[in-house]
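Let us walk through a complete example step by step. Step one is to write down the protein sequence. Step two is to encode the small molecule, PRP, as a SMILES string so that its atoms and bonds are unambiguous. Step three, shown after the inputs, is the structure prediction itself.
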Amino acid sequence: MMSENDQINLIKEHLKSYKDFPKQGVVFQDIFSVLQNPKIANVLYDVLLNKAKSIKPPVECIAGVDSRGFLFGSVLARELEIPFIPIRKKGKLPGSTKSVHYKLEYKEDDLEMQEGVVREGQKVLVVDDLLATGGSLSAACELLSQAKADVQCLVVIELSELQGRKIINVPIHSLIVC
Ligand SMILES: O=P(O)(O)OC[C@H]1O[C@H](OP(=O)(O)OP(=O)(O)O)[C@H](O)[C@@H]1O
Ligand SMILES: Nc1ncnc2[nH]cnc12
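Step three: the predicted structure of the complex.
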């Protein structure tokens, strides 16, 4: 059995980064480079699941952030046998939705959530691949807070230099801090 530290170091070794993508000055961390290797992807899913299971109080629902958050959020929801809800870029979700405008490291957009998908007080874990400036995660938290959910966040990678954590006022769990 590998320790969590060894698992995380192994994932880090397989994480490829690209300078100046998609814009000058951005160092893009490509999570798909990890998923391309099934053994390493399994290690990542194991560490994430253990982290999600350790969260107190127990998570009752997973919210995935469009689109890379879906890769991990839906797998966790299945493993934990709890609901998965999508937080999507604008214009993708049918029915009544709430919307929040936000800025991220290299663009701006709107995130939306369907009305009635979470209940007041529900323990919701927002899942995404990466925390950079925190714009995306904080918009997702805002949507869930408007619905009066009890929110925590889980990301695979946190880019600590960009200090995204500072603008998010709920607990954030991250696996890899770079
Ligand atoms: O902390 P921030 O500065 O907000 O950046 C982080 C967000 O940026 C990326 O998403 P992106 O909107 O590029 O979409 P994608 O997942 O569809 O590639 C990433 O998956 C996070 O959601
Ligand atoms: N540096 C980065 N790498 C990958 N995804 C990102 N989303 C925002 N900033 C990013």
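Step four is interpretation. The first helix runs from residue 4 to 13.
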